[in-house]
Amino acid sequence: MTYLVAMAEALTDEPDYNIFENKTGLAEDLKFLASMPELCDVTFLVGDTREPVCAVKAVLASRSRVFHKIFYSTSSPQRKKDQPQKENKLRLFLKRSSEPLLNLQNTTEKRHVYHGQQLPTIPEPTQSQHQTLIIEEFEPDVFRQLIEYVHTGCVTLQPRTLLGLMNAADYYGLDELRRACAGFVQCCINVDTVCALLASAERYIQYKCTKSMVQKVLEFVDLHGNEVLNLGSFTLLPQHVVRLILARELKADEVTKFQAALMWSKKYCDNSSLDLREVISTFLEFIQFHKVPATILMKDIHPLGIVPDHIIMNALAFQADPSSVEPAKMSPKRVSRRRELSVQSSLDPYGSTTTLSSSTSSDINSDRHSSDGKHSSEGGFTGSPLGRPT
Known about the structure:
This protein is α+β, with helices and mostly antiparallel strands. The protein contains 20 helices and eight strands. It has helices at 2-13, 23-35, 57-63, 65-72, 77-82, 89-106, 140-152, 159-171, 175-188, 194-201, 208-223, 225-229, 239-247, 254-270, 276-280, 294-301, 309-320, 327-330, 343-347, 361-369, and strands at 42-46, 51-55, 109-110, 113-114, 117-118, 122-123, 131-135, 388-389. A four-stranded mixed β-sheet has the order 2-1-7-8. The protein has a two-stranded antiparallel ribbon with strand order 3-6. A hairpin with a 4-residue loop joins β1 and β2 (51-55).
């Protein structure tokens, strides 16, 4: 009996020579197909730069119901636009009678020879067969990765484009790719990638997949505060994100938080005409100066002239006699990790409806003059990722 079981297992392990598969070669050929504009029948103009990304409509439609609806649904506005107008019988008769002459005059002929035999004439494809759509909501690199996956079934996931690709996959109904991106988030969140992930969240805040990923990234930042604040890429984050991080209960000392705010402010001033004191004032409320040693306050921070004297005096007074200063003056605004946060409050401690927008001088000035602490920002979601014809 054991011998029979072993024989059966051996037979199942043997390859089936009746079936030949070359999936790698197929994927490479389809990738090459999407890279050749003359072989494609649709071009997407993606992002603000309108970067062209070519594809084959039949492949897209077979892999995604959303793309199928765009290109082949009878109710699609693109389809309605492409349908020719009905012609009366007289015009149709005249058109048919002149077709041979028109074909001879307007068709550019290509004659091919194969093994000494002349193949039938192939007319050049007309321009009307090619369709062009505009995609404004996704970055070119993100949409190019999406198209590569649709054509080949494989794509290299990268932290820089991960959030955009996950939201694009969710919108276009590519569930396997979306799940793969969600799984990759778990293993790619580290000190070197958190800033890139948070920066990308600024563009895709309106999509539902952003919330879960941002929560995971912020939880990581809470546990690795000192490391994240010392990153060079921290200075490249938008102002709203910096405020959010400093407002949270980080495992970081107050000196490191001040140094991070100072480095970000200096970087910002290099690209603007604002004074350093004005810029860093938007972060001082999140730093507990009474926890900074008195020697550092007097020898390192005070000589910079960027922290108001009353803040330093309150901190020194609290260290000498905690009862001499009101507790409210010593407790900066914070976002608790234990509180359940919405997408807006996760990205803006004040609950602003438009969050993670690019920092501009108007953002900083509004923070400085606003009494309720809310930020002013531009941006928002316009249009549909379905794309619109040019």
